Amino acid sequence: MPLRDHFRPPLDDVTSWEGFHGQWPAMIVQKLNSQLPPHYVAEPRVHLGSAFEIDVATYDNAADHGDRQDSLAEDGGTTASWTSVQPTVLLETALPVPPEYEVLVYDLRRGRRLVAAVEIISPANKDRPNNRRAFVQKCESLLRQGVCVTIVDVVTIRSANLYRELAEQIGAASPLASPLLYAVTCRSRHRDDIWRVEAWAHELTVGSPLPTLPLWLTETQAVPLDLEASYEETCRVLRLPSR
CA-to-CA distance for 36 and 216, rounded, in angstroms? Predict the structure, then answer.
């Protein structure tokens, strides 16, 4: 079955891309856990981020009471000096971050050591330089730790190519082609003072099936990441149309 465009009509008229992105990691996990060797486990991770808007500001009742007291003093003929009231804390939190949709694979024999990560790109990962930089730095950090990283980009409404930016970040030559949609697995290998990064990249096209990528658990052991199977199962569960 073909890849759909989840961000434009007619599909986005009947369903949300957030629902699809939230369900896909679970389907990938279900498939992987039926294939992984003993002592490995895959888990979904969906983090919706912290970006939101405040539409209505609210204030503590004590502040209103103080304002009324000043007005009463002025009405009585007494000159009252105006002093700004203490602010009400509306929000204290970390800086907004984009949502994350990913699958993490752990080696239980080595203290739940992370060995592989599947990152499903969201529009927010691509929409501004800071978000793109944060995503790329995260992937670079994982690679330097020896974690296999798979990036899947089916976002049709943003043109940035984070695979290309990752290559530039680690000092590699940019891929010859920079498709809008793609899936790529990257892994790093260390030999003495040499750091080698290998990639298995596939261009994705709306209307065509998704590829199967290797997901490396060790330098010599990989399991197939069948994106087409998990994608179609996600669409079936969510009752999405075939086209």
Answer: 11
The kind and range of the H/E element at 42 are strand 40-47
Helical H runs in 87-150? 123-126, 129-144
Q: Report in angstroms the alpha-carbon separations of 39 from 36, 149, 174.
A: 8, 20, 36
Are the C-beta atoms of 72 and 139 separated by less than 8 Å?
no
CA distances to 153, 158, 215 from 6, in Å: 12, 13, 25
CA distance 117 to 102: 7
pTM: 0.80
The chain-wide mean pLDDT, for the chain, equals 84
Give me 213's structure tokens: 């990528």
Cα–Cα dist 151/12, whole Å: 23
Closest CA to 152 of 187, 203, 220: 203
Residues 6 or more apart whose Cβ sits within 8 Å of residue 109: 39
Residue whose token pair is 């609210």? 58
Output DSSP code: residue 214: E
Domain ranges of the chain: 11-52+98-237, 56-90
Q: Hey, how many other C-beta atoms are within 10 angstroms of the C-beta on 109?
A: 10
Structure confidence by residue, pLDDT tens digits, 28-38: 999 999 999 99
